Amino acid sequence: MLPSLNSVAVAAVPFFIFFYFLKRFLPFGRKMGSNTLPTVPEVPGLPIIGNLLQLKEKKPHKTFTKWAETHGPVYSIRTGASTVIVINSPETAKEAMVTRFSSISTRKLSNALKILTFDKCMVATSDYDEFHKLAKRCLLTNTLGSNAQRRHRHHRETMIENISSKLHDTLKKDPIRPINFREVFESELFGLAMKQALGKDVESIYVEEIGTLSRKEMHKVLVMDMMEGAIDVDWRDFFPYLRWIPNKSFELNIQRKHLRRMALMNALIKDQMKRIDAGETLTMDQLAMLLWETIIETADTTLVTTEWAMYQLAKDTIRQDRLYHELQKVCGSNKVKEENFSQIRYLDAVFHETLRKHSPAPLVPLRYVHEDTQIGGHHIPAGSEIAVNIYGCNMDKNYWENPEEWNPERFLDEKYDPLDLQKTMAFGAGKRACAGSLQAMLLACGAIGRLVQEFEWQLKDGEEEKVDTVGLTSQKLHPLLAVLKPRN
Ligand code: HEM
Fold it and tell me: Does residue 295's CB lie within 6 angstroms of at least one atom of ligand 1?
């Protein structure tokens, strides 16, 4: 006689209970894989809001670095409803960005960034998908790859000539007045960004939706407003289950910035349409976004790096002299050229040490873990967000001797290849490492070299202490003011 279904079920219950406990509490009962590993340590926080109150700054990289001293290089925090795994050492950052890339290749964007990136329609903020691959190919072929950079070389040379003559002219008029370095550099860099993206530097333009914009106003719409908007916080980012509650002032503000940027980009493209190769696969909006991407990426991070390098050299005149003499040794009375860079090791060292100490992108935009994985020997569950703290990696005491000190000499060590642009974590790592690192190096080294060849730099009195930063990147809060003396 066959047993009834009921009696089978009753007999099976103890087995289910037994297997449940086996699976839940005993390691050998678990599925083999990363979830047999310990979970990451948690930074203690409050119920519901988690660690939000401890992260008052809009850029929390310094707080993250401090927490790594207590909790180790990989720990988790809670920002409202989300769990964020924070990565703070070069080894674990490389593991997250290179070895475990296939599990952590998508992006998690804030509400502000979703609007400003036109829902991930940028190479730097897209997921690793077909659009990303197509858009990146376009960007490398037209602007950032080594062949494209060779074609754009005359733009860089013109930019550096213009900066040099503007500085000489200003000094002729008033030799003792401190120079606002940013004013001169920012404007020329924006000009270069427009030439690379659109084929020409535009002095003013009529935009139907906005009116006539000067070059300065274009810079505000395309660069300044965007950098400001990118760090705007919508409290609903932290509590997605409350997204049905409207946050009108936030949305209006970000949408306005986005619409002005798109209107201006469309007007600029129309103006230049004859010479821009749109390809057949991109829509007008996608094209506008990709051209804008090279403008904003050129106009910001390279300025941040060059301004900090000039600050450090103006403050440390002994190292400035060393750079000057190395430039003289290689170039003699000629102006430094890009083909000289590989021979001037100290110029390369100044560039990389500035990237390390003042990492222009201190935090990598959040990534999303789409399948269970592991980092630093810890289990990382699917659904977590990953914050790579580049500032923390570049200031890691276990990796760098006296990381607080700006010391270019550390990069003269033979273990560093002069051609390697990844000496620090500043440009990220792996498949999503910076696509503009070559351009950033050529522009920054070209400018730093010429500016030291032609002028003696000294900080204006009281400038030394002005090291605060502002914005999404680590831009100097106070523009660098320096007293310059032309060298003969
Ligand atoms: C010193 C200057 C710069 C620094 C420190 C820097 C830093 C970074 C970092 C850390 C990433 C990686 C983000 C990630 O892993 O998710 C990145 C990506 C990127 N950067 Fe830069 N960047 C610089 C200059 C530039 C410039 C000048 C451009 C272009 C004009 C540029 C274009 C890009 C692009 C397109 C990506 C995305 C690459 C991808 O997702 O495949 N960057 N950058």
Answer: no
Annotated binding site for heme: 434
DSSP-derived secondary structure for 115-150: HHTTTT-STTTS-SSHHHHHHHHHHIIIIISHHHHH
Residue 78 phi/psi, 5-degree rounding, is -120, 125
Rounded Cα gap, residues 432 and 386, in angstroms: 14
Question: Cα–Cα distance between 276 and 268 in angstroms, integer?
Answer: 11
How close are the terminal C-alpha atoms of the chain, in Å?
110
| Neighbouring C-beta atoms of residue 425, cutoff 10 Å | 28
According to DSSP, the β-strands at 74-79 and 455-459 are unpaired
pTM: 0.90
Atom 26, ligand 1: residue with shortest CA distance: 436
Which residues, in sequence order, are CB contacts of 143 under 8 Å at separation 6+?
149, 152, 196, 197, 294, 439
C-alpha 59/C-alpha 472 separation (Å) is 7
SS3 call for 430: helix
Rounded CA separation 320/323 (Å): 5
Reported residue count of the chain is 488
Atom of ligand 1 lying closest to residue 390 CA? 10
Does any ligand 1 atom lie closer than 6 A to the CB of residue 435? yes
Unique residue bearing structure tokens 């910035």: 257
Cross-strand bridge partners of residue 481: 180
Q: DSSP secondary structure string, 61-78?
A: HHHHHHHHHHH-SEEEEE
CATH code at 36-486: 1.10.630.10
B/e letters for 198-229, b = 16+ CB within 10 Å, e = fewer, are beebbeebebeeeeebebebbbebbbbbbbbb
- State pLDDT tens for residues 5-54: 344 333 443 433 333 333 333 333 333 456 789 999 999 999 999 999 99
ipTM of this predicted structure: 0.99
Mutate to test the pocket of ligand 1, among 149, 289, 348, 434 (most ligand atoms within 8 A of CB): 434
For the chain, what are the domain ranges? 36-486
**Residues forming a β-bridge with 456:** 485
Q: 281 φ, ψ to 5°?
A: -95, -10
CB 474 within 8 A of CB 464: no
- pLDDT tens-digit series, residues 212-222: 999 999 999 99
In 3D space, the residue among 132, 133, 105 whose CA is nearest the CA of residue 120 turns out to be 132
Would you say the CB of residue 364 lies under 6 angstroms from ligand 1? yes
Residue 79, beta-bridge partner list:
50, 82
What is the Cα–Cα distance from 132 to 179, expressed in whole angstroms? 41
Q: Is the CB of 450 under 6 A from ligand 1?
A: no
301 Cα: distance to centroid of ligand 1 (angstroms):
9
- Number of separate helices (H) and strands (E) present in the chain: 16, 14
Q: What is the pLDDT of residues 324-338, one digit of tens each?
A: 999 999 999 999 999
